[in-house]
Amino acid sequence: MSIKLTVNGDTRELDIDADMPLLWAIRDHLQLTGTKFGCGMALCGACTVHIDGQATRSCVTPVTAAQGKQITTIEGLSTAAGRAVQAAWIGLDVPQCGYCQSGQVMSAAALLAANPKPSDADIDAAMAGNICRCATYVRIRGAIHQAAETLATGAPAAP
Amino acid sequence: MYFRHIEDAAALAVGRSPAELSRRQFLKLTTLAGSGLTLGMVLPGCGTGPGGAAAGPLVMPFVRIAPDNTVTVISKHLEAGQGVWTGLPAIVAEELDASWDQMRVESAPAQVPMYGNLAMGGKIQLTGGSTAVANSWQQLRQAGATARAMLVAAAAKAWAVPASEIKVSQGVVSHTGAGRKATFGELAGSAAKEPVPTQVSLKDPAAFSIVGNEKLPRLDARAKSTGKQQFAIDVMLPGMMTAVVMRPPRFGGKVSSFDATKARAVAGVIDVVQIPRGVAVIGKDMWSAKKGREALSVTWDESGAEKRGTTQLMKEYHALSRSKEAVTVTQRGDVEAALAHAVKRVEGEFEFPYLAHAPMEPLTAVCQLSADKCEIWAGCQFQTVDQANAAAAVGLKPEQVSINTLAAGGTFGRRANPESDYISEVASIAKATGGKYPVRLIWTREDDITGGRYRPLNYHRVTAAIGKDGKVAYRQRVVGQSIVAGTPFASMMIKNGVDPTAVGGSAPEQYDLADAHVSWSPPTVGVPVLWWRSVENTHMAFSKEVMIDELAHAARQDPVAFRLALLGEHPRHVGALKLAAEKAGWDSPFSKEKGRGRGVAVHESFGSVVAQVAEVTVSGDKITVDRVVCAVDCGIAVTPDVVKAQMQSGIGYGLSAALYGKITLTDGHVDQTNFHQYQVLRINDMPRAIEVYIVPSTNPPSGVGEPGTPPIAPAVANAVRAATGIRLHTLPFDLAAARRARA
Predict the structure, then answer these.
(1) Number of folded domains that form chain A
(2) A-chain residues within 8 Å CB-CB of B686?
């Protein structure tokens, strides 16, 4: 059926199944491959995107539920929090294999947008849904704290 | 993965004259290159650049310098997170005197001997055994120094000055007297016309500024923080279809028949084909392929399938450990006499589950097949073997299979398997569909978790004792499947009946023990197994370090001092252990708070020694690891921050297995399917503080991708025993069960 999705500000009409998860519409039909498939059950967070600013697991979100909403993927992340997170990620050399990092960055950016100065417990609560098998968690935590500091002192430059 | 045992690799692996060996190897390669057989010196065919210099690139097997002044290192190794895309360029940049900003990296094609791993004789291209930097060290230093010499020769000719007076620094070639300078890019074209020098001098390590630089940023951090890094799952070819495979529900099952009527009726399903490993459903996108597979009906022939569960297997392993069916791995002195006369004696039984690697990128590969060519895109770890297996699947010669090695979303050993499972599958699908379209195969997470190739299930039985003279005697029986038996590597790697990937790293190898006996009983089980980050060390280090700790406890000695007394012949163990203990404040009294404990472990693997001190808090049955202090001796640390990252990563990966990792089978069916059942470490369980210290060394680099994993589980178990008195001998840790067992 015809589904209208607004991703990173662009509205596109797609002829896809109504039950298709947003993840596969984004990846296979919009060719935005920064958002990753990891589990298909909202267990790992690799597929995290923002829907109206909220971190959302696209692998279990039917496309019909995302219609009429603002969807942001890693390719379109441009908020102050998003830029600060990416700059910190690069500055602290967070990624290893990198596969989960789009989802980590999207979750971290949503966290900082809602809570500009998260505690370690806040970080645990917001980030525990994002698995990293390389266990880059120490640096993820450090980068979120660093991004919070950057946000508190001024607008970060684009990474 | 572990390949140190391959005979023709021995000289390099033990570090005998690596410089000379590598120089010979390098000359052989460059000679081959010159003969046009391989990617060698390519003389630019273009015209002249500004100032009369020849424009064009300098192309060598491992380095390409482009007119735009970029220096691209050709990586023969897979980047799977372990940092080779930073480490290998660092080695080249150092000898080349390049600026780090101009460095780039790309994957080498699948091609031996050019891109073979020198740690196994250069005959096979693979990334494994934590050998990437170690086997590339001399090779890439030579490559960098050779390219530098050619740039200098070109400048000397252009400026009519002696080469010896030319300086190279930060990517700029200059001659003070002549007042001339040029970038690498400006000189590349004319440098390409210079003869390849047969001898180049390498830098004095004291002059290194890139190698060993703590602040060197990863070359892939930006792409991986912005979603731009391309993985196999991101490859989009025109007309490409997506496949998923239905595989036998039990290992060893085969397709008997299948009915694709309903699957073909699913919108978007293009084709359903049988392949050797199952039935593939091909759709126009992932969603249709997946729905098609759900509608597929397959009847399986399970006559040859493994139908035992892990409870039964473990029972059989216990019995096997008491049987005489075993091969001797290590024999020292007279262990029976020493045990009989001991004053302190400790017994231990250890159980280790099957473990899935579960890399974040589920196995994925893309294949495009034509009459005389098969092209693969994947995060390949075992290019030479993958090439051969893909060729066999499609009926071409290995050299007709080209492989585009992309960054892998993790592997931990999973992508290097002798049957190239997912690569063979995608090639088989391309063959079965006649190459009508490029095809992308995606394993779902369920396919990955239930798909086998696990770290082997293991049972260890150990008796250790201290004699009147204070000497330690150690007897161990290991029961666990061989990883290499039945593969093409068996004849190379199994020596005297012993598979070193099943039983390496035992106590008599790592401590000064006069009386020891280690034996191994390999059961035959139909569950496919594989090397899992640090391979045999995952279980061998655990029983060793827990038993040594319990012996120290029995002898009322400090665990660090007790170990040091047994390490007279292992100075690198001593160095790492002392550094970790010092940085952890081991000599200061630890917290007396209830439930808090501190434990230590030290282990050598892949040529590196790692010691870790873990501090834990036990609250009820929950174990929290608060702090880990880690010391690593990995020879020269080429990229220290990557070394630190790998220690953090190895600790997290090992802790994941210690706290959660477990694959079980019931009647041959895998019980876990996804991350809700196969639980892995998340950020809330990661120690808040991990401190990594590198032991200063002038030895050539050794492994870092795997050696951080083995010590963490025993260090935590020892800390929990110190805190609670509970011995944890079964993984993953289950404090409640251990309390019940003691009661």
Answers:
(1) 2
(2) 135, 137-138, 141
